[in-house]
Amino acid sequence: MTRILVGSTNPVKVAATERVVAGVLDATVEGVTVDSGVSEQPRRRAETVAGAENRARRALAAGDADYGVGVEGGVAETDGPPGTWLVMWAAVTDGDRLARGGGPSIRLPDDVAQRVRDGGELGPVLDDQAGTSDVGEGVGAAGVLTGGAVDRESSLVHAVAGAFGPFVTDHYEG
Q: Residue 105: is it exposed, middle or buried by C-beta count within 10 angstroms (0-12/13-18/19+)?
């Protein structure tokens, strides 16, 4: 049986990984506490990707596993289209290869974006504005900002699936 360690004990990140590998791998998935090596609120796409990569590598190193998975959410300004965006990235490593996948990007409302640019973290800002609690361990910013059309787990599934692609298909070079 394949053993997968996710570089977080956040139940949403673990559940997203479980959804990706179900039916693809005969695997157990477990969350482990690791340091992302980036700020609590990543503020650039590159920092968000680095956090996912660090989590994947550190998860693999945390125990006897076949794969380490890292999932990181952040906010990023883009050259176009304009705005501040919620971004989600995942990384998977088997110790030899590292692959990445991105989730959806959702533009932040201007008032939320301003509070984040002023130093706030997205989760607490949304909790304050939407009257929620621990949005990051529930529907997530994606759920709040899409009126529930997608939630954090389903958004992260896409990022994790993209990162697992090179390991579960033969469409990529070794």
A: middle
Backbone angles phi, psi at 40, to 5 degrees: -55, -35
pLDDT of residue 24 exceeding 90: yes
Tens digit of each residue's pLDDT (9 = 90 or more) over 53-101: 999 999 999 999 999 999 999 999 988 889 999 999 999 999 999 999 9
Percent composition of the chain: helix, strand, coil (DSSP 3-state, to 5)? 40, 20, 35
Closest Cα partner for 102 from 144, 168, 29, 156? 156
The contacts of residue 126 (CB under 8 Å, 6+ apart) are 112, 132, 135, 141, 144, 145
Q: Which of 110, 42, 111 is nearest to 82 (CA)?
A: 110
Q: Is the pTM for the entire model greater than 0.70?
A: yes
Residue with tokens 């787990």: 153
Environment class of residue 159 by beta-carbon count within 10 Å: exposed (0-12), middle (13-18) or buried (19+)? Answer: buried
Residues in the chain: 174
CB 70 within 8 A of CB 53: yes
Amino acid at 120: G
d(C-alpha 16, C-alpha 104), whole Å: 14
In the chain, the domains with their CATH numbers are: 2-107+151-168 (3.90.950.10)
